[in-house]
Amino acid sequence: MALSALTGIRRIEVAGGVTLSQLANLKILIADDHFLIRQFVRNTLQESKITNIQTAADGNEAIDLVQKAQDIAQPYNIVFLDWNMPTISGLEVLSYFRAKPEYSSTAFVMLTAESEQQNIMKAIKAGATSYIVKPVSPTDLSKKLFEIYEWIKRKRQSSQAMSG
Question: What is the extent of the structural domain holding 90?
Fold first, then answer.
């Protein structure tokens, strides 16, 4: 089911029974050094009724925000990472958090212009939940959001099964 930020989004149910009201509870970080990309992603997410959105302009800021959120037991559900950022690359941020088990249920999504197959494979091997090549349309970003939410649901269910 295609979603369009340009035509407005109603309460839509897609495969797996995910609704926009379920997405509204997500906590998301957008880490990209380009202001316009951060705004585009924020606006697209807001069209999906997601309001708990923070942004970071570089890798250091992303690490700091993700750790602080975890420290107060309010972790991010999804972290969008640009590959090429000042200070620390998105791939380095991804690798840093994937080495820590407490972040295993956080979705780390590469949102980058790096489109070479070898880079995509490198990110997937490092633990990326999904990989989105820029430029991306609001419709495609919304579709990916539902796929990522399904991944989060599966992670929650498996962690509950292990602890239950």
Answer: 25-151
Q: What is the CATH number of the domain that holds 74?
A: 3.40.50.2300
Question: Which has the closest alpha carbon to 63: 40, 79, 84, 83?
Answer: 79
Domains: count for the chain: 1
Mean pLDDT over residues 139-153, rounded? Answer: 93
Residues 97 and 52: beta-carbon distance below 8 Å: no
Rounded percentage of the chain residues whose pLDDT exceeds 70: 87
Average pLDDT, the chain: 88
Nearest in space to 62 (alpha carbons), one of 104, 26, 24, 106:
106
- As beta bridge partners, residue 121 has none
Residue located via tokens 């942004």: 55
Identity at 51, one-letter amino acid code: T
Q: Quickly list H helices, the chain.
A: 20-23, 35-47, 59-71, 90-98, 117-126, 138-163
Distance of CA 154 to the CA centre of its chain: 15
Given strand 78-81, what is the order of strands in its sheet? 52-56, 27-31, 78-81, 107-112, 130-133
Give me the residue label for tokens 């958090």.
97
Task: Read off the pLDDT of residues 88-127 as tens digits, 9 standing for 90 and up.
Answer: 999 999 999 999 999 999 999 999 999 999 999 999 999 9
